[in-house]
User: Fold this.
Amino acid sequence: MVGYILRRLLAALPVMGIVAVLVFMMLRLTPADPAAIIAGDFANDQQVAEIRTRLGLDRPVVEQFAIWIGNMAVGDFGESFFYKKQVAALIMERLEPTLSLSLLSIFLTVVIAVPLGTLAAYKQGTWIDRIVMGFSVIGFSVPVFVLGYILIYLLAVKLDWFPVQGYQYIRDGVGGWLLHLILPALTLSVVFVALIARMTRTSVLEVLHEDYIRTARAKGQSELKVLIRHALANAAVPILTVIGLTFATLIGGVVVTESVYTLPGLGLLTVDAVLARDFPTIQAVIMLFSLAYVLVNLAVDLAYTVFDPRIRY
Amino acid sequence: MKWTRAVALGLGLVASSVTTAVAETTLKFVPHSDLKILDPIWTTAFISRNHGYMIYDTLFAMDANGEIKPQMVDKYEASADKLTYTLTLRDGLLWHDGAPVTSEDCVASIKRWGARDSMGQKLMTFVAALESPDAKTIVIKLKQPTGLVLSALGKPSSNVPFMMPKRIAETDPNKQIEEFIGSGPFVFKKDEWQPGAKLVYTKFDKYNPRSEPPSGLAGGKVVKVDRVEWLPIRDHQQAVNALLAGQIDYIEAPPHDLHSLIKADKNLKMFNWNPLGNQFTFRFNTLAKPFDNPKVRQALLYAFNQEDFLQAVVGTPEYYKVCKALFICGAPFESNAGMEDKLEANFKKARELLKEAGYDGTPIVLMHSTDLQILTNLAPVAKTLMEKVGMKVDMQSMDWQSLVARRVKKDAPAQGGWHAFITSWVAADMLDPVMTGFLNASCEKAMFGWPCDSEIEKLRDDFAKATDVPRQKEIVDAIQKRFVEYPTHIHLGQWYNSGALRNSVDGVIAAPAPVLWNISVK
Assistant:
């Protein structure tokens, strides 16, 4: 197992290398100059050129890349062009809202979608099945921003149950933290609930007709036990795969959700950095997201062994 | 329905744990963008200027009538030959760290601002020496008389000559300051700053406001709340939702299409805090053919009409004004000289001028910014009007930051350069010929577009040297008459916006920048 993990981590290095080259080159190809943005409307050519020199943007692209990779190798992600802070510190500040939003969204997704999908499979063809699948279609079809605004209008503006926007750090109170996160997490979860509920239904339906389920029933086990211990456990591998993919896809979702709800996380940082062409910040955040993607996939592969003892690495 | 009660109870408990009672009053304000650069001398960004007005003070300030009044200065006098200005600081001025404000601090601040700001640079060409003979006296010695001393030191918009402690003001003008201590009415709480999400300012208890009532940016800066939070909400609809829900108090500038939503709510009100407004502007690249020929530029001065542009963007006449004056309608140097028959959609005259100029059908690269809502509809209107007079237009859409990067390029339009773009200026930046950046026609030293006209430059110099208003007005008329022969840009109309507030907010001041002193929250 340890050997497998090490091999996978080593295999991630070229992936990260390719991401680094692509991100760096794409940013240099974008038609915008951070120095001109920083300098402001009234700056003259000389002032813009001075800023460009100070930021090192006047050096050859290859030299800029070598400096960036070299610094990153020793843990230096550079300084944000705009916030005048170390990018690593900026990312650490922004990690909590993004992790909170992602984990709560995954939690909501799993606790809602897996039972709903299992129930729909168990009650296949009944009105319960149709309602769950109907919800699933709606969840897929309604764009996140439309759903977000509907939730905000009803639950925040009209009923005043939740804040419209903003974030409260855990250190300032768990109640406020949760209250600020529920709406964005709900918004983000709906599409994934729809996806995983459908996936769970299909997987559970497949195993419900297996011989070992009939055997378990013949042994007199309760339906709940049959469903959870035998059906769901054996249907877990594809569900787990989708949950893993969901976690990775969430990275894209948090960018939009954090912008709409003004959550000061990595998503909002990414949007601000892209709009301002804050190269060091964009590069570091994309590298971090890529690493998260690789690690989540590894974690999912390792989790297979827990649910299916036949899988060995 | 026990579960609904349980949920309601749970939510109530959670809510009560969040809304811990605090005695202090807080104003929750949504600025027009996020603040990233905290040095208002180093950048001209309006958001940094607005931050500057929170924590710094100025020697002079513009009042509601456009007149320059003393602010940190108690009294001032000019010598009979107008070559020496002596300014005396008010008593009781303190920096946020408790140290007294001295004339040495102010001299260092003027020097740093004079190295960055275009109007400051102009003023410095007249200055022979800046002295601080004692802790409260500043002496400005001039090489020759100029009317710029007060107007430059009381300049209302970017870069505003904010005063800083000497040790901070001595920072290289090309580097950003790293310590944020002013003597203004609010203290910046750097420890509570959440970049991208929240900035916090608290009342400076030891601030000594002037005794006069507030007027524009002048008068007494009396702070009536304990704390101000800037919450940069990117999504305009979300900002309005938060205002409707009572979770914020004041939005600086909601877009026009959301005004009806705000006006429909009886708990909200709107207030135009910037009565001078803003001006849409079409900028030429005078280096690129055919705009290197003034006659082609004149053709557009005839072809355009402001109403079309204003209707396309603002829509409601309540929020716009057709204004041909180069130095803003309603401002001291408003003039119609030379502009009588311009901007009237005179296509016949425009075609004649294009023919005289020998326009050969070169496609005009018009940069079209698509992500700033207030600018998006302007370029398509310009394209239509230009095509009506027989020009070919290659309108290229891009985000604003791409436009910002491209407009500084002098390459030929077909090789990544440009012919024209449209932007919007705060009217307070265009009140006279020296202040107006787009009128600077000093060739290489001019702003992007690089107009080059010795006559305009001579008139701008004459304006700087003039020390009385009637003479300045004469020069303004002359400049405007020269401008129609050598257009550097075209005004597309003056427009306004309003801030949106809850009824519980009172005392917002009308000024060229959104200032938060004098505001109370019930």
